[in-house]
C-alpha cells in the first residue's frame, strides 16, 4: 500500500534538488503533486518525469516571495486536484556571502523574502485550505542553520531559525485542528545549490560531517515523506535534523 494514496500535495522549488526529490517521492507514494517553481522549464520537466513513471502531476509557476503567488498556488492546486492535504515549503536560496556588518540590505531582504516570508505566506494559505479538509500536513525546509551558524551567511541562518520558530508556532496553534507542521534540518546536500562553491569549499564542508560525505536529496525526501504521512501522526511542531552528524560535534 502506497502511504500517500489519495492525497494531494504541493511542493515549492520542486524544479531542482531537494524539492524535485520530494515531488518524485510523493508521487511514487501515490500522491497527486502540484509542482511549483519560478523556473518554468525545470518545473515542467519534473511533471514529465512523474508522468513518465505513471504518476499524476501538474505545474504552477509561483514566486515564493510573493503572497499573491502563494495564494494562487493553493487555489490552483484545489482547482486541479480538488483539495490540499500536504505541502512542502521548500523553495530557498543561499544568498550572498559576507560578514554581517558588510551584508547588503538588498541581499538581506531577498533571502528573508524567499526563505522565510515565503514559507509564512505558503503556510498561511495552505492552512486555510487544509482546515476545510479537517486536517493536513506541512513540512517546511529549514537547514542545520536553523540551529547552528553559517558564518558569512547571516541572512540564511536567520531565515532558517525563523522557519523553525514559525513551524513550532503553527504546530502549537493547529494541533487540535488535526493539521501537523514540522521542519526538516538537512546538513549539506549534493544539489545545484552548492554548484557555485569551489572544490576546496566543498571538501571543507564534507569534513564537517562525521559521515564524511554530503547528503543526497533522496535521503532528505525520505524524511519529508514520513513527516507528510500518517506514519508520523503524533509528530507536530518539531524540527528534525538529517545531517550526517554535522550538529553532533
Ligand atoms: N543543498 C543543501 O545543502 C541544503 C541544505 C539544507 C537546506 N537546504 C534547503 O533546501 C531547499 C532546497 O535547496 P536545494 O539545495 O534543493 O536548492 P536548488 O537550488 O537545487 O533548488 C531550489 C529550487 O527553488 C527554486 N526557487 C528559487 N527561488 C524561488 C522563488 N522565489 N520561488 C519559487 N521557487 C524558487 C529554484 O528555481 C530551484 O528550482 C532550500 O530551502 C535550501 O535552503 C539545502
Throw out a few tags for this protein.
seven-stranded parallel beta sheet; binds nicotinamide-adenine-dinucleotide; 249 residues; 7 strands; alpha/beta; 7 helices; Rossmann fold
- Main beta sheet: 7 strands, parallel
What is the CA–CA distance across the termini? Answer: 39 Å
* Number of strand segments: 7
Percent strand: 15-25%
CA gyration radius, whole angstroms: 17 Å
* Structure ligands: nicotinamide-adenine-dinucleotide
Instruction: Identify low-pLDDT runs.
Output: none
Helix content bin: 40-55%
Quickly name the level 1 CATH class: Alpha Beta
- How many alpha or pi helices? 7
CATH topology: Rossmann fold
Instruction: Spell out the helices and strands N to C.
Output: EHEHEHEHEHEHHE
Structural class: alpha/beta
CATH homology group = NAD(P)-binding Rossmann-like Domain
The domain count comes to 1
**pLDDT averaged over residues:** 98
- Placed side by side, the strands forming the largest sheet appear as 3-2-1-4-5-6-7
For the record, the CATH architecture stands as: 3-Layer(aba) Sandwich
Shape: globular
